[in-house]
Amino acid sequence: MNENEKKKRGLGALDVLIIVLLLAVAGSAGFRYYRDSRVKASQAAELSDYVITFQIKNIRETSANSYLIEGDEFYLDENNEYFGVYNGSISVADAQKYYEMDNGTVVSVMSKLPDEQYRVDVVGSVTASGREDGNKCFLLNGKRYIVNNGELQIHSRKVAFTVLVTDISKAK
Questions:
Q1: Is residue 105 packed enough to be buried (19+ CB in 10 Å), middle (13-18) or exposed (0-12)?
Q2: Which residues contact 133 (CB under 8 A, 6 or more apart)?
Q3: Residue 97 vs residues 9, 70, 75, 106, 119: alpha-carbon distances, Å
Q4: What is the DSSP letter of 110?
């Protein structure tokens, strides 16, 4: 056997193994992309409207009147993810602070500062898109968990607030 005959050999076992592995990797990547796109599409189809009710504590009355406007869109501060459309204020009341006295009793004091310093507590709501997981926990936009009594930092184009979530219910 001369050297030319040795060079003309066909595909060896190692060559075939490499080709099979490359095809398996390509097929796996294609299947994963196809499956992920179907899962995302089905999750988007499962999203429903929910009403998230929240409290904003101890803000200026001028902020409550000027910047909490029905129809404004709010976003989460942490990742700028869409939070929802403001439905309006459910209630606006004098801001309250709680103090513990020396004898152990707790007293509530209302804010009665003049003019621009007048402080209020606001209860409002947004209509948000989301779904419930298997444990009846709410997923905002199908991705981020939002829970009752959880604090969130939200903002609109005009203002930013820290809110306390008080209720999450399916929109009617």
A1: exposed
A2: 139
A3: 88, 27, 28, 10, 11
A4: E
How many residues in the chain? 172
pTM (2 d.p.)? 0.68
Mean pLDDT per segment of 10 residues, for the chain of length 172 residues?
60 86 90 70 72 93 89 94 92 85 88 72 94 87 91 94 94 86
Provide the CA 69 distance to its chain's centre, in angstroms: 21
Determine the 3-state secondary structure of 116 from DSSP. Answer: helix
Q: What string of DSSP letters covers 60-82?
A: EHHHHHHH--TT-EEEETTT--E
CA separation for the pair 25, 5 (Å, rounded): 33
Which amino acid makes up residue 58? N
Burial code (b: 16+ CB inside 10 Å, e: under 16) for 117-131 equals eebbbbbbbbebbbb
- Nearest residue to 125 (alpha-carbon basis) of 91, 162, 80, 79: 91
The first and second tokens of residue 8, run together, are 């003309």
Nearest-CA neighbor of 163 among 42, 77, 72? 77
